[in-house]
Amino acid sequence: MSQLDYSKGYVLEDDYVKLMPLKIEHIEYLLDLSKEPNLWTYFLEKGDGLENLTKYITSTVHNRKHQKEYPFIVFDKIKKQYAGTTRFYDNSSELKTIKLGHTWYGKDFRGTGLNKRCKYLLFQFAFETLELERVGFGAHAENKISITAMKSVGCKEEGVLRNFIPSLDGIGRSDIILLSILKDEWFEKVKTELKHKLTKH
Which of 109, 118, 168, 173 sees the fewest Cβ atoms within 10 Å? Predict the structure, then answer.
């Protein structure tokens, strides 16, 4: 089993997309994307505009140094543009589990198949390189688009964290939907089905 090495500059890519370690200097490439309306609706940590985006990226880069998160910037090879970010977090080498999230893309990159390609590379890395047993996800219960997207790449809904976060309107609380993919599911079904979906784009 290969441990996640936070000091290593992992690059995951195919002919269409390239994921590289997110760095402070990437702020300028993501700034315009970060200003899109409604992009941060379901995020507790906002990254809209220069000040918030700087805090957002600085925080996750800092967490990588402390082995808490491993963030990637996503580059669309076809459009030759940076598309957004995603990250691994809550890695447990003892339990062989990890979580994947904090994923966002600019509007021009959504619905293009880019997310599926990224997920394929990230799942392949998690299950085949790191040999993990489980990749977990979470989504705001009202974020139907995100939940649908997760299910479309093979995630299974497995539970609800009730009243886990403040509601969007600041009144009351909201639930978080938990989803996951297991190693056996990846090798038995998800990998083949996801690869098939990629050939349609």
Answer: 173
